[in-house]
Amino acid sequence: MLTETPTTILFITGAFVSNKCWDEWKVFFENKCFKTLAPAWPYKDAPAEVLRKRHPDPQIAGLRLTQLIEHFENIAKKLPEKPIIIGHSIGGLIAQILLQRNLASSAIAIHSVPPQGIMTFKFSFLKAGWGPLGFFTSTKTTFMMSFSQWQYAFTNGMPEEWQEKAYYESAIPESKLIVRDTITSAAKVDFHAPHKPLLLIAGSTDHTIPESLNYSNYKKYTDKNSITDFKVFSDRNHFVLNQPGWQEIAVYIEDWISKLPS
Prior knowledge:
Blueprint: E1 8-12, H1 23-30, E2 35-37, H2 48-54, H3 58-61, H4 65-77, E3 84-88, H5 90-100, E4 106-110, H6 123-133, H7 147-153, H8 160-170, H9 176-181, E5 198-203, H10 211-220, E6 228-233, H11 246-258
Parallel strand pairs: 1-2, 1-3, 3-4, 4-5, 5-6
InterPro entries: AB_hydrolase_1 (IPR000073), AB_hydrolase_fold (IPR029058)
Organism: Flavobacterium nitrogenifigens
Domain AB hydrolase-1: 9-244
């Protein structure tokens, strides 16, 4: 997409990972003549190693989904034009909510946490999510995935040395409250309302957000005059943004954007 004023892409990170996961994506899209920004979540503007040393971090622990949505809403509102929003996991949920609020020209939700009311009882989803929900533990402290939890929830199917590298470069402590808030009215979307173009992307081997959950999310949107698309990539886990071969997904997204009506 070549324009005199490059279109801005706002990348929104998911839970448990550093916003540095978008670094290569930013380079990819900047080479396609987009402006990009991938701001950190509140209290997380530091390298992953630094954030891990702060665990259990009471500031991050107190973060709620409504605050997080407001944080990215304010960023979107300050841009000179409505951005394209690309979000992963909880970032994909926020992308859908900001699209609903007419703050994006289009949105791409990658392996998105679904809005309120969409659930699955698939075993992998329950197993991956049990620890982060932090039941029977204090919400005043952050949750930090163990390496074995990371292997199951994010990097399943990858060689162990890659899993270790990903863990030390990306894994960070998280608010248990944020995770719990995703099943409340804070995550509500009106699936019948008209909306700007939306692309939902799923991965066939994602334990945390199974393909079937993304498909249920897609099928909830009912406005026939709005563009709502769905795409599955095989052998993609929840570490999809930095899993080898991520470029294939970036190319697909760029092509999808280029074909949208002006």
